[in-house]
């Protein structure tokens, strides 16, 4: 139901600011499994799901503005009716209850999409969540209602506070309204599959990335490379002909990419792979696309590669091995459910930025900025510099 | 120019002890080119310019300035159009033009690692042997540097499809005023923590000094098609833009020019534009050969249906270049019509185009000054060029005042005061219209977080609340700043 609860949000934050209580901002909880729950000492939850509704949408402007609590489901339906979509194709995870049980069919809010900044399989070709953001309205930690950016594609007035919200996990304020860029849906799409080793698949992806192809996703797992083509029908037909792979059955392919995006694919079902020593961690590795693949310390079953090589999912319990690997290839890694590693110096500036928005530190975010626990996961700057030279 | 205060002398001696002589400019003739950027009417003669050759030297300069408490004014190629690189009477101009090496072109990861002084076009030239290029193409791309592009979040004519600088920069090394060097991002699609890379893009040198940039490279389009369409009504041209985008077509570029701009450009460039058109559109489509002919035909259908009375299609590079030449020379062409002009940079939602152009017509009549409109129609970025004569007493202020009202119209239509040129010193007053005091205050706290000593490019980008107050709350008086002829195309 559409409702403007901004006045209540402002007053909740002002109360917290006055009393020094903490607030945990929550949406539908669909991404709750990605970071540890914040430790609640005192304070409450600021549920923004009621603050919802589409505020402006003109398809030919390629932008939609909606309150942060608007469900992704509603946004997607409204866009689809006009032949459009969110280009960043954000994942629609299912909420996990505190007891670990998968919740209802809720798939997240627009505010949650922005706050977590997680992009779908098309990220290298269609951009990240942050790339699509044009403007935000937010309540900062002092209870001030602020507007940044707007609904236009080009805007360099003031610092880019809007894009800074993507992936901030609520550290900087409560998102109230978001203007996000949309894209025409593909006129046609298909998925080609190739039986290839990981190395062969990587080489193929690197080669294809240098050509004019309507690539919208790549996925390698278990000896199969799947390539998603999407765009103008003539372009998809041309690429299909040129690439001559086996065509995944129509309909099956939509489900395949949706399951990959939403982590419903078997690979991500931790409980399906109980090991003698417990359930393996799921690692998200962001690395240069051409970076060497993990060696034989990792079983091939435990590797899934997206984004033309730039995103690699690993199932593994040896933190040191994963960290050493990612360090050697100049990327970063994040174990699902644990803190993200943030470079110590960068974390210091991020903390200052948080203080600039939230001087009394009332927003308790699951993404902790002042942790130095995992700083060793960041590749050594000196080494990277020498590598670059 | 010699140092004029005791502090200047101390700073200069410190710089001289630390840097090789060839990295320092202190003589009047040498300093002269640095007194302004592309916004040439705003000038301030610097007393020292430093041109470091390495990141270590940049770190040294920053440390010296911080120690002496003098401002640092970062500068790229000096092509900026809003006075962002204007020197400060107490400050040191830090030019990054000598750091102009392309460190690597990595075709597998499709990135280039470059120093900040590398020219925008030089990146594409270096990537060309691999069939790759760097997409953002501000019209100054032959001269402007990538460091400056990052500072201004530079755009160009292909933004709707390929994005701005922020969408095409994957990593930076940045030096803070406290002396920390951070390496943010790289050949990576995302990074942990707050997105400081997005924050740095367009921060006009007020948050940090970029010492290295990693940019994304794209495969060069297999083929391009350029279409010219003439319309008898500006609204028809606007409707054609909406109809093409509404049909799910994202052209590489889509430019609109109104009658005065067309006539000026045609006289200058002989591009073959229809002189009787109320507006023309120039549309560029690019991509795989397989789909280009189908999409081109679709676009032509939309143009016909929207009432285009003349449509020319160019598939060969030579004709395409001719059709683009008129648009690309629109600024100097308009410059020939009038002794002076100022270029505004508002952005509006596309559907507001006819409304805003009508308002501009009314303002033009009220102020008695002609306006030529050049419009990045694909992304809503409007460049009204106000013609005036600076030799007529009061007319500069008059044109300035009119420009301010145009920008207020853009904000009222749901747009912004600057799409791609930046605030610098030129548009400080208009920021008071677009942002509330709470929002401006938030900007200052961001600045304090990144630059606690406040030495980085002070007085740019964000107006002080006092300044907005003096301007009379939300109403902006113009004419406080001298306004210039913009010597750029």
Describe the model.
The complex is a heterodimer of chains A (389) and B (489). Chain A has twelve helices and 18 strands. By secondary structure, chain A is an alpha+beta fold. Chain A folds into two domains: 6-185 and 344-357, Uridine Diphospho-n-acetylenolpyruvylglucosamine Reductase, domain 3; 188-335. In chain A, a hairpin with a 2-residue loop joins strand 10 (215-221) and strand 11. Mean pLDDT of chain A is 90; it is low at 98-102 and 373-389. Chain B is α+β, with helices and mostly antiparallel strands. In chain B, the strands form four sheets. In chain B, strands 12, 13, 14, 15, 16, 17, 18 and 19 form an eight-stranded antiparallel β-sheet that branches. The radius of gyration of chain B is 23 Å and the shape is globular. At the A-B interface, strand 7, helix 6, helix 8, helix 11 and helix 12 of A face strand 5, strand 9, helix 8, helix 9 and helix 11 of B.
Output the keywords.
heterodimer, A: 389 residues, alpha+beta, Uridine Diphospho-n-acetylenolpyruvylglucosamine Reductase, domain 3, 2 domains, eight-stranded antiparallel β-sheet, 18 strands, 28% helix, disordered C terminus, B: 489 residues, Alpha-Beta Plaits, 4 domains, five-stranded antiparallel β-sheet, 19% strand
Outline of the structure:
Chain A is α+β, with helices and mostly antiparallel strands and about 400 residues long. Chain A contains twelve helices and 18 strands. The C terminus of chain A is likely disordered.
């Amino acid at each position: 139901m559409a409702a403007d609860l901004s006045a209540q949000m402002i007053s909740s934050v002002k109360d917290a600011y006055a009393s020094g209580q903490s607030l945990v901002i929550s949406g539908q909880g669909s991404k709750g499994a990605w970071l540890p729950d914040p430790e609640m000492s005192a304070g409450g939850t600021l549920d923004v799901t009621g603050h919802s509704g589409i505020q402006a949408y003109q398809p030919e402007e390629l932008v939609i503005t909606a309150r942060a609590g608007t469900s992704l489901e509603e946004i997607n339906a409204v866009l689809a009716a006009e032949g459009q979509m969110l280009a960043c194709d954000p994942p629609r995870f299912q909420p996990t209850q505190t007891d670990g049980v998968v919740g209802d069919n809720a798939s997240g809010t627009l505010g949650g999409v922005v706050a977590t900044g997680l992009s779908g399989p098309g990220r290298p070709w269609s951009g990240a969540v942050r790339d699509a953001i044009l403007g935000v309205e937010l309540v900062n930690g002092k209870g001030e209602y602020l507007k940044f950016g707007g609904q236009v594609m080009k805007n360099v007035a003031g610092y880019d506070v809007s894009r800074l919200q993507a992936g901030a996990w609520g550290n900087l304020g409560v998102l109230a309204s978001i203007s996000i860029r949309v894209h025409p849906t593909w006129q046609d799409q298909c998925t080609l599959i190739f039986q290839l080793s990981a190395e062969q698949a990587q080489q193929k992806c690197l080669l294809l990335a240098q050509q004019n192809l309507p690539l919208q996703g790549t996925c390698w797992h278990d000896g199969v490379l799947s390539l998603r083509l999407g765009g103008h029908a003539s372009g998809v037909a041309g690429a299909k002909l040129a690439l001559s792979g086996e065509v995944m059955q129509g309909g099956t392919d939509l489900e395949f990419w949706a399951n990959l995006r939403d982590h419903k694919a078997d690979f991500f079902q931790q409980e399906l792979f109980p090991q003698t020593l417990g359930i393996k961690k799921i690692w998200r590795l962001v690395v240069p696309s051409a970076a060497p693949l993990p060696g034989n310390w990792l079983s091939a079953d435990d590797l899934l590669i997206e984004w033309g090589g730039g995103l690699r999912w690993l199932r593994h319990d040896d933190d040191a091995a994963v960290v050493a690997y990612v360090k050697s290839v100049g990327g970063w890694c994040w174990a699902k459910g644990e803190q993200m590693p943030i470079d110590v110096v960068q974390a210091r500036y991020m903390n200052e930025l948080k203080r600039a928005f939230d001087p009394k530190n009332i927003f308790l975010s699951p993404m902790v900025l002042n942790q130095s626990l995992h700083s060793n996961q960041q590749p050594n700057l000196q080494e990277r510099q020498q590598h670059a030279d | 120019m010699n140092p004029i205060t005791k502090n200047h002398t101390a700073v200069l001696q410190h710089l001289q002890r630390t840097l090789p002589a060839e990295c320092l400019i202190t003589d009047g003739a040498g300093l002269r080119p640095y007194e302004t950027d592309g916004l040439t009417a705003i000038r301030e003669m610097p007393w020292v310019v430093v041109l470091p050759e390495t990141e270590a030297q940049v770190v040294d300069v920053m440390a010296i300035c911080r120690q002496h408490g003098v401002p640092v004014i970062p500068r790229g190629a000096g092509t900026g159009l809003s006075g962002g690189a204007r020197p400060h009477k107490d400050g040191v101009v830090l030019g990054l033009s000598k750091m102009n090496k392309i460190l690597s072109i990595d075709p597998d990861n499709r990135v280039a690692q470059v120093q900040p002084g590398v020219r925008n076009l030089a990146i594409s030239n270096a990537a060309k042997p691999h069939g790759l290029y760097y997409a953002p193409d501000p019209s100054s791309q032959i001269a402007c540097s990538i460091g400056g592009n990052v500072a201004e979040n530079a755009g160009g004519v292909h933004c709707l499809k390929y994005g701005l600088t922020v969408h095409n920069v994957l990593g930076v090394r940045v030096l803070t005023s406290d002396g920390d060097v951070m390496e943010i991002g790289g050949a990576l699609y995302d990074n942990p923590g707050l997105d400081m890379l997005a924050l740095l893009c367009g921060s006009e040198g007020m948050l940090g000094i970029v010492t290295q940039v990693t940019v994304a490279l794209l495969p060069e389009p297999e083929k391009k098609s350029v279409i010219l369409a003439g319309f008898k009504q500006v609204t028809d041209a606007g409707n054609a833009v909406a109809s093409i985008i509404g049909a799910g077509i994202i052209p590489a570029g889509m430019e609109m020019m109104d009658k005065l701009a067309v006539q000026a450009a045609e006289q200058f460039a002989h591009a073959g534009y229809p002189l009787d058109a109320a507006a023309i559109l120039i549309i560029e489509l690019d991509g795989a050969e397989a789909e280009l002919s189908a999409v081109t035909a679709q676009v032509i259908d939309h143009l016909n249906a929207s009432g285009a009375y003349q449509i020319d299609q160019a598939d060969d590079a030579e004709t395409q270049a001719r059709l683009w030449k008129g648009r690309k020379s629109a600024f100097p062409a308009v410059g020939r019509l009038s002794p002076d002009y100022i270029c505004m940079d508002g952005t509006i939602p596309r559907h507001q185009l006819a409304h805003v152009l009508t308002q501009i017509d009314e303002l033009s009549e009220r102020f008695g000054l002609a306006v030529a409109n050049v419009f990045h129609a694909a992304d809503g970025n409007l460049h009204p060029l106000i013609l005036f004569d600076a030799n007529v007493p009061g007319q500069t202020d008059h044109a300035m005042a009119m420009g301010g009202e145009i920008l207020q119209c853009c904000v009222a239509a749901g747009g912004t005061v600057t799409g791609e040129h930046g605030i610098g010193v030129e548009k400080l007053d208009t920021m008071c219209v677009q942002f509330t005091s709470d929002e401006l205050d938030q900007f200052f706290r961001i600045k304090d977080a990144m630059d606690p000593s406040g030495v980085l490019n002070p007085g740019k980008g964000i107006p002080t609340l006092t300044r907005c107050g003096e301007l009379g709350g939300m109403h902006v008086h113009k004419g406080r700043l001298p306004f210039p002829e913009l010597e750029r195309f």
